[in-house]
Design goal:
CATH superfamily of the largest domain: lambda repressor-like DNA-binding domains
Number of helices: 8
CATH architecture of the largest domain: Orthogonal Bundle
Strand content: under 5%
Largest sheet: none
Number of strands: 0
Length: 176
């Protein structure tokens, strides 16, 4: 796939090159709605297109969506499949999750969709807002493992130190 092919697909979906998966999905849904036979009568100017041209546009939109989505998922998977290693001396905090996610340019919604962990729990992990997480450590550990592995870390590198922070917080909370 050449760069000019990808540029053509971005142009079909009327989005900027380098758009996120979320932006691609949004543009795809919007264009499908605009060009569907149900809404053609309500959108001014659609009478300019013959039925054949309208169907060609819909096919192009479908193809652009499929190719860009596949390209982005493949690229994202490649970017995060490598084993990340923590720099020696860097404390394991929720900020590790945030920084790694920002580095690869993935939104929390996408992480949530891929890991099946609710967005608010992922955000709580990043912010170490433990009050917003279930009190059972097994859930927090499961969420953190899923998130860490999605980001390309090995669980053994991050989870023990992160869970120590969580357990310390929990012990402090129970003393109050």
């Amino acid at each position: 796939m050449t760069g000019s092919d990808l540029r053509r697909y971005y142009k079909i979906l009327e989005i900027e090159e380098g758009a996120t998966l979320q932006e691609i999905e949004h543009a795809y849904r919007m264009l499908k709605r605009i060009h569907s036979s149900d809404s053609a009568a309500m959108v001014p100017g659609m009478q300019e297109f013959s039925e054949t041209r309208r169907l060609e546009l819909l096919d192009a939109i479908e193809e652009a969506h499929r190719v860009l989505e596949t390209q982005l998922k493949t690229h994202s998977h490649t970017a995060i499949s490598r084993n990340r290693k923590l720099e020696p001396g860097i404390p394991v905090t929720g900020e590790i999750f945030f920084m790694a996610r920002e580095e690869i340019g993935v939104e929390l919604e996408e992480v949530s969709r891929r890991t099946k962990v609710r967005k608010d729990y992922l955000q709580a992990l990043e912010m170490e807002d433990f009050d917003r997480l279930p009190e059972a450590a097994v859930y927090v550990r499961g969420f953190a493992v899923a998130y860490a592995e999605y980001l390309g870390f090995t669980a053994e590198d991050i989870i023990p130190a992160y869970m120590l922070r969580y357990n310390n917080w929990l012990a402090t909370k129970k003393k109050k």
